[in-house]
Amino acid sequence: MSLTYSNMMELGAKAPGFTLPDTVSGQAVSLSEWKSEVGTVVVFICNHCPYVHHINAPLVALAHRYQQKGIQFLAISSNNVETHPQDAPELMTQVAAEEGYPFPYLYDQSQEVAKAYGAECTPDFFVFDKDLACVYRGRFDDSRPQKDEATGSDLSQALDAFLAGRPVSQEQHPSMGCNIKWK
Description:
Number of helices: 5
Strand order of the largest sheet: 6-5-4-8-9
Low-confidence stretches: none
Helix content: 25-40%
Distance between the termini: 16 Å
Largest sheet: 5 strands, mixed
Shape: globular
Structural class: alpha+beta
């Protein structure tokens, strides 16, 4: 594991479009079709990362809570499965079922989507408004594996402000986790 910090996309930047296979449904999912008219969260995760394992259950709970408020979630894995076979699509399907992901779990085989977003680590969160302009990028919260309980406080505060029509705090912290396994 190589500890890596997120790149912090520029606030206001437009979400790069994509169409990727969903390892849960077997269907192609495009951002333009799945985005919400309220807001959309794109998160880069993978199967093997201990930072992702640490937040999985709280992420599922948080997604359920905010999906009821109109926020769409999309998860993407961009890892090189030749060097990290535990992140292969068929295992993504299994992890999504075991964890109860209430969102598509997309496979970015070419890694072009991760590069377009400037994603560097797992997990790495991006929140976009209805026009797909970035309003938040960074961490789930300040917890770490084997240190503190994951709550999703940073992401929740951003989503709460956004949903209330208040400006999302400009003080945003980079996510940290395992580096994306590049080809």
